[in-house]
Amino acid sequence: MTEPLLRLRNIRAGYGRTQIVNDISLDIQQGERLALIGRNGMGKTTLLATIMGLTQLHSGKMEWCSQSILDMPTHRRAALGLGLVPQTRDIFKSLSVEENIIAGLRGDATLEEAYALFPRLKERRKNGGGQLSGGEQQMLSIARTLMGRPKLLMLDEPLEGLAPTICDMLMGVFEGLAKAGATTIILVEQHADLAVGFADRVVILDTGMIAYQGTTASIKADHTILDRLVGVGLAEV
Amino acid sequence: MSHTLKTALGVIALIALAAVGYFGLADNLAFMTQVVIMMIFVLSLDYVLGYAGISTLGHAAMFGTGAYAAAIFATSVSSDPILGILAGAVAGGAIALLSGFVLMRAHGLTLLMLSIAVTEVLHELANKYSGITGGADGLSFTPGPILGRFEFDFAGHIAYIYSVCLLLLVFIKLRVLTASPFGLAARGIRESQARMRAIGTPVYWRMLLIYTFGGAFAGVAGALSAQTTALVSLSVYDFQLSAGAVLMLILGGTGQLWGAILGTMVYMTVHQIASSVDPFNWLFIIGAMVLIVVYLVPNGLMALPALLLRWRRK
């Protein structure tokens, strides 16, 4: 087996002294699509924030392409190729759509790439970040992160509160990115059916620990896993 | 409307305003010059506080250092005013850079207190090393002619025109700076430091650079103040100078260059009138004005037209 893109070993992390992620070990391979699911408050968002260096790491090891990134500040992790689309979207409201994207531009990335992916943003480019619908905000948040050319794209509940047509469109974009092969994706999603349908592998978190991990095929074969650990069965979703 | 066109219109508007001041208040050019200098100072504060969200009550540190640098430069190196302004900018920027190494690691109340502390330390240093700074007596000097031709005159015509030219240069520079990706990053930092880090911006270093640039502009204002009055005293480090600049910025509206200009104009005009009407209680009028504006127009006077339009529609 090749060296993983990201290796987490016995990660314990949280906010201040409060520990939310408890002893998580996980390997993520280049080009993999990983679905991270679990009930609310189980540590999914905190785990992504920890990978990005935005939380207090209490103990553990974290390697990116076999290089320790434990003490690396967030901006350098981003420069290495880690990208996070946060649940809160974090659009800069005082900047226009175009300015929001420019703020994320790195290397040879261009505005036109973002507009090719999300033509709607081109139509709204002069609008303020605070004047967008939820779907447009999500497109902008994704586009801004993609302008950093992430090798690992972490999507934290990107479909939350969005209309089904927007969800389909965004899932199509994620599918396209994954098929292109250059982007490894971790998808945190409450819509378990969409997450399982998209991923190669599923990790279920429970009280900050990995309660289950396996291939999509294995989770589809045993319908009780999701029901037991997340409270939804694939039949329901 | 393109950014360049907006900047050009802004420059024209500033020249028109300056002309009104020059011809309308020809007997009071010394006051008008002070207003222009304060505009540069408040613009520099707006870049730091309004755009990047760096809270400070110690911006006088850079103003004062720029003023002393220009005066010392004039007495010991060259009396050329343009070189003196450059010396002020370098000194203001250097103090911002040095203090910024510590300040930019602090946030909120700690940052405010530290920014005041830096100014107090500089005040004490200027007092202690009176052989260089003149101490409590101040340091007087005679600036040379601008560009070797234009002598500072008693009526203050040259000082006013010179100050307006520098204001225009600072305004244009800040317009360019705030619209550049660097400027956009400053606004991003104000809104969410964590998000800026996550998209690859080294927030600490960026804030340090912003603070240094702001310090250089404040240094220009300080140097100009020294040159137009031919004197620097310890008052350049007064807390009231920093606090007054913050009030002017809040009054006009933060994060927009015109807010800094409008706020300074209104504050200093009201201050001038109020202190001439009642030399003992003028602060009451200033305080009441700021309270009313902050209560009724929280985003500053620049937001007043939009607010009036909304009221009219209701």
Chart the SSEs and their pairings.
The complex is a heterodimer of chains A (237) and B (314).
Chain A: E1 6-15, E2 18-28, E3 33-37, H1 44-52, E4 56-64, E5 67-68, H2 74-80, E6 82-85, H3 97-104, H4 111-117, H5 119-123, H6 134-146, E7 152-156, H7 164-180, E8 184-188, H8 192-198, E9 201-206, E10 209-215, H9 216-221, H10 224-229
Parallel strand pairs in A: 3-8, 3-9, 6-7, 7-8
Antiparallel strand pairs in A: 1-2, 1-4, 4-5, 9-10
Chain B: H1 3-24, H2 29-51, H3 60-76, H4 81-103, H5 108-128, H6 130-133, E1 139-140, H7 157-179, H8 181-191, H9 193-198, H10 203-229, E2 231-232, H11 239-252, H12 257-277, H13 282-296, H14 304-313
Antiparallel strand pairs in B: 1-2
Helix pairs in contact in B: 1-7, 2-7, 2-10, 2-11, 2-12, 3-4, 3-5, 3-10, 4-10, 7-8, 7-10, 8-10, 11-12, 12-13
Can you walk through the features of this model?
The complex is a heterodimer of chains A (237) and B (314). By secondary structure, chain A is of the alpha/beta class. Chain A has helices at residues 44-52, 74-80, 97-104, 111-117, 119-123, 134-146, 164-180, 192-198, 216-221, 224-229, and strands at 6-15, 18-28, 33-37, 56-64, 67-68, 82-85, 152-156, 184-188, 201-206, 209-215. Chain A is 36% helix and 27% strand. The two termini of chain A are 34 Å apart. The model of chain A has no long low-confidence stretch (mean pLDDT 91). Chain B has one domain. The longest helix of chain B has 27 residues, at 203-229. Chain B is globular, with a radius of gyration of 19 Å. The interface between A and B is medium-sized, with 27 and 19 residues.
